[in-house]
Amino acid sequence: MTGSVARGLAAGAVGTTVLQTVTYLDVLWRGRTPGAVPERVVDALAARLGRKTPDGHRRAALGALLDVGTGLGVGVLASATRSHGARFSGPAGAVVTGAVAMAAADGPAAALGVTDPRTRSAADWAAAAVPHLAYGAALHGVVSAVPTAREQRDRRTPAPAGLVLRSAVLGVATGGRSSLALAGPALTDRRTRPSIRAGALAAVGGELVADKLPGTPARTSPQSLPARLLGGAGGAGRLAGREGANAAVPVTVGLLGALAGSFGGVAWRRWASRRVPDWQAALVEDALALALAAAACVPGRTNGGRARLRVVRA
Q1: What does the UniProt keyword field contain (predicted)?
Q2: Distance separating alpha carbons of residues 143 and 100, to the nearest angstrom
């Protein structure tokens, strides 16, 4: 059986080849200028690091290598996600993988101030979405066709509605306090080692304090939001894993819940800060996030490894 990383690299290489092919076919068909965002990202990174901007050929080469690295990295991530229990169907896998690849390409560019996705036209979005959808379809096809040994052993049942709902709730809690994404499942799982419990408690306590400090970055900033979204997805994956369920739907709703919780939390703080001191609004948000995480993670905790074991033996 192929390992998860090797499969991901191979799938990423196939997907990147397809993406580049579709992109340049579009350039050929419409006669448009190829995008220069990767090269501009190279310029921005050089400026941030205080380095001289590379010359024309090296700049173009570094930009192309950034694209290749992103394609391979998303391939490894998609492979690992499937290996750990999120088994998307063909169409859903293509769309989700393509969207993740677009976010991986656009996120750093937006964070560096190179582009602003909000200013894109519909034609610009289509020109970016179609190649990435093709990338997602090709990558997902390879990952699905080559199961790892772990996937052969670890068969998953469909996620029940209750698990999907709790995944969304944990995502919302993660949008409020990102440390709850992994701390919630860890603290409510009886198999968690004491050292991990202590680390989870320390992470939650540290965030509860840091959230009140004036220098803490906004949770919806390009630097902070991706971590919360990944946390919401990861926490939902942990909930699904301990119940032996396919994590595809829980991971998706966990990510969307984290998105809603992040922007909802910002809206709450802005509204409440005009009526009460900000620290009081923050304490209310603390209590709500902790309550939501408990409501999401406490049910199903006693199933621990038993449900998973039954699925593996099936």
Answers
A1: Membrane, Transmembrane, Transmembrane helix
A2: 15
Evaluate if residue 304 carries a pLDDT over 50.
Answer: no
The phi and psi torsions of 7 (rounded to 5 degrees) equal -65, -40
Average pLDDT of the residues of the chain? 89
Pair of tokens at residue 99: 């969207």
Domain edges within the chain = 4-152, 157-313
Residue burial 152-177, b: 16+ Cβ < 10 Å; e: rest: eebebeebeeebbbbbbbbbbbbbbb
Do the Cβ atoms of 239 and 181 come closer than 8 Å?
no
Cβ proximity of 58 and 52 under 8 Å: no
pLDDT in tens, 9-55: 999 999 999 999 999 998 888 887 777 888 888 888 888 888 887 88
What residues contact 290, with CB distance under 8 A and at least 6 apart? 173, 177, 180
Query: How many Cα atoms are found within 13 Å in the side-chain-facing hemisphere of 70?
Result: 26
Residue 301 pLDDT level (bands cut at 50, 70, 90) = low
CA dist 179 and 200 (Å) reads 8
DSSP strand E in the chain: where? none
How many CA within 13 A on the CB side of residue 299?
15
The Cα angle at residue 179 between residues 175 and 181, in degrees rounded to 5: 65
Contact 35, 102 (CB under 8 A): no
Q: Which residues pair with 245 in a beta bridge?
A: 157
In the structure encoding, which two tokens stand for residue 171, read together?
Answer: 């995502």
* Token reading at 234: 């990861």
